[in-house]
């Protein structure tokens, strides 16, 4: 599957999550949690969470969830031989998030708060403040 097709699937997944705009009023930030679903097959998962805290200096802010996509995880399998590590996955998904923040159907919801990305056991990167 081409990367543009994958973005279209990612965008549709986000649209479905954000369509009802049922984010809690106490949402202070959003984070895209990343998971290694299958290291051997280079499959990575993405979960969206709304957080009731945000502190750029403390990466634990993303643990203060007030909403989550829970088991509705978007999965992507990296297919390029040179792009199969976690950094490539994070960069690819970060690019998709950036594209969505610019022109996604419900980008206004995410753009109302800071947005981060990171593996659940790793450091977070702020995409938008």
Number of helices: 3
Report mean pLDDT, rounded to a whole number: 91
- Helical proportion, percent range: 25-40%
Main sheet overview:
6 strands, mixed
Structural class: alpha+beta
Q: How would the global form be characterised?
A: globular
Strand content: 25-35%
Rg value: 14 Å
Number of strands: 6
| Low-pLDDT windows of residues | none
Query: How many structural domains in the coordinates?
Result: 1
Written account of the structure:
The protein is α+β, with helices and mostly antiparallel strands and 129 residues long. It has one domain (3-128). Helix content is 30%, strand content 28%. It is built from three helices and six strands, in the order H-E-E-E-E-H-H-E-E. Strands 1, 2, 3, 4, 5 and 6 form a six-stranded mixed β-sheet that branches. Strand 5 and strand 6 form a beta hairpin. The protein is globular.
For the structure shown, list the relevant keywords.
129 residues, alpha+beta, six-stranded mixed β-sheet, 3 helices, 6 strands, globular
Short description, anyone?
The chain is an alpha+beta fold. It is 30% helix and 28% strand. The chain has one domain.
Describe the SSE topology.
Layout: H1 3-18, E1 29-38, E2 43-51, E3 65-68, E4 74-77, H2 86-103, H3 107-111, E5 115-119, E6 125-128
Parallel strand pairs: 1-5
Antiparallel strand pairs: 1-2, 2-3, 2-4, 5-6
């Amino acid at each position: 599957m081409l990367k543009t097709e994958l973005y279209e699937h990612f965008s549709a997944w986000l649209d479905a999550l954000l369509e009802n705009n049922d984010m809690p009023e106490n949402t202070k930030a959003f984070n895209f949690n990343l998971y290694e679903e299958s290291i051997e097959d280079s499959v990575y998962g993405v979960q969206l969470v709304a957080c009731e805290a945000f502190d750029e200096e403390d990466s634990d802010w993303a643990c203060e969830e007030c909403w989550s996509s829970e088991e509705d995880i978007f999965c992507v399998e990296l297919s390029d031989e040179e792009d199969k590590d976690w950094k490539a996955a994070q960069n690819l998904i970060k690019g998709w998030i950036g594209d969505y923040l610019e022109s996604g159907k419900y980008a206004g919801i995410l753009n109302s708060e800071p947005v981060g990305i990171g593996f659940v056991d790793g450091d977070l990167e702020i995409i938008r403040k």
